[in-house]
């Protein structure tokens, strides 16, 4: 993330994503060889709210597997009681998409947090730092038919995303999934010619993210 000296070790993804043994049984443990990376005070301290935001979103998603749901029923509901403002914020702005309940999300915050995890995983894999902007995409991002009184062309917004996702998957097809607790988090990783970085993240079996960084993308909007 930066050039400051590391003062601590930080879990990536955050430890709170991995359910505790007491809720899922020791035989199903999701805390094997958790990945840590060196961190400075600033970057370790400032992101706990972002981590919590992502934890809420992922574990309340219909897509999350039993490990995600276990986390929701233990950690998230407790935290929501402690900090009702955050959950109010997340559960507001409900809208219906294809007969399902959707929530307006803080896309910038999600991209920033996933971007940080991708830089940490890059360091874990290579021992190096990745400074150029990364672009984050996911199939969890849906588009309502109408927003702020404007009718949206869903197809026009979603189809380039699918094209991008399909391309990413194609390039990573022969790569193995990595990660010691794949039911909570697994990833694929491609790094070429010191300038091309491609990753696929999967949380709780079904919540996917594609991360790309390439000189051609560095000047595009929405990089983090
Ligand atoms: Zn830092």
Keywords:
224 residues; binds zinc ion; alpha+beta; single chain
Describe the structure.
By secondary structure, this protein is of the alpha+beta class. The chain has one domain. It has helices at 21-24, 41-45, 48-60, 66-82, 84-91, 107-126, 154-172, and strands at residues 8-11, 36-39, 94-97, 100-103, 135-137, 146-147, 150-151, 178-181, 185-192, 196-203, 207-213. A five-stranded antiparallel beta sheet has the order 5-11-10-9-8, with helices on both faces. A hairpin with a 3-residue loop joins strand 8 and strand 9 (185-192). The N and C termini lie close together (11 Å). The model has no long low-confidence stretch (mean pLDDT 89). Zinc ion binds at residues 1-2, 4, 40, 42-43. Zinc ion is lined by residues 1-2, 4, 40, 42-43.
Short description:
This protein has helices spanning 21-24, 41-45, 48-60, 66-82, 84-91, 107-126, 154-172, and strands at 8-11, 36-39, 94-97, 100-103, 135-137, 146-147, 150-151, 178-181, 185-192, 196-203, 207-213.
